[in-house]
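User: Please fill in residues for this 233-position structure.
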């Protein structure tokens, strides 16, 4: 068993900020010092990770959600000695296909057309949350407010960040690893997380029922419980 971590660095996803982690920070602040990385600046994965590291404590437990999972993998490439344990949540270690890169480029161009960006609309929301959450108006408004707060420029910048393959990186990871996803995640389905967990001996895979892609918001207690256990593994 590793020593318990005293600092937790939380990395949000595309068009997410610290509000994504509100429940986890509130619940875990008595156990660990929580920090949220800023993923809104920088035009490359390397630049984003470097900025996060510059503001981070010397060592930390690292939890990356969605896009934040790719940033977490980049941190492992450049500063593995600073990471005490790793959690990859609703994310992937696969590189984008050329088709997906083209889709992201088109989305980025569209977002920058004046008057066209309105955060996560109904169509995107159906992809991001579990079907049972589509009538949770409080949750949906929270997500829309967060995406609108960050805005079109952040959406475009984050969409254009290269998602780099992380298989070889994870194969060599030997510290505690939590792999977590919603059972109904349509963006990064459970099969992708099974793939990640299979790369690392002793990895713990947690699949949360009745939960889509936005697990920290959709099922905050289950996510918090998984993180709490992982922090003392």
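Assistant: Residues filled in for all 233 positions:
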């Amino acid at each position: 068993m590793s020593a318990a971590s005293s600092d937790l660095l939380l990395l949000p996803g595309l068009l997410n900020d610290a509000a994504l982690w509100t429940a986890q920070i509130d619940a875990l602040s008595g156990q660990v010092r929580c920090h949220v990385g800023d993923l809104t600046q920088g035009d490359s994965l390397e630049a984003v990770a470097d900025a996060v590291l510059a503001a981070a404590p010397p060592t930390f437990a690292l939890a990356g959600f969605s896009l934040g999972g790719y940033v977490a993998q980049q941190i492992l490439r450049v500063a593995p000695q600073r990471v005490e344990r790793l959690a990859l949540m609703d994310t992937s270690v696969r590189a984008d296909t050329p088709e997906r890169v083209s889709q992201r480029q088109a989305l980025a161009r569209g977002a920058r057309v004046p008057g066209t960006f309105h955060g996560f609309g109904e169509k995107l929301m159906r992809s991001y949350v579990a079907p049972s959450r589509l009538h949770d108006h409080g949750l949906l408004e929270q997500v829309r407010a967060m995406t609108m707060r960050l805005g079109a420029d952040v959406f475009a910048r984050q969409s254009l960040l290269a998602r780099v393959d992380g298989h070889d990186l994870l194969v060599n990871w030997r510290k505690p690893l939590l792999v977590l996803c919603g059972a109904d995640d349509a963006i990064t389905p459970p099969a992708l997380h099974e793939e990640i967990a299979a790369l690392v001996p002793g990895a713990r895979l947690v699949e949360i029922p009745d939960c889509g892609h936005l697990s920290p918001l959709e099922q905050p207690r289950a996510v918090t419980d998984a993180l709490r256990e992982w922090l003392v593994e």
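For context: The chain has a mean pLDDT of 95.
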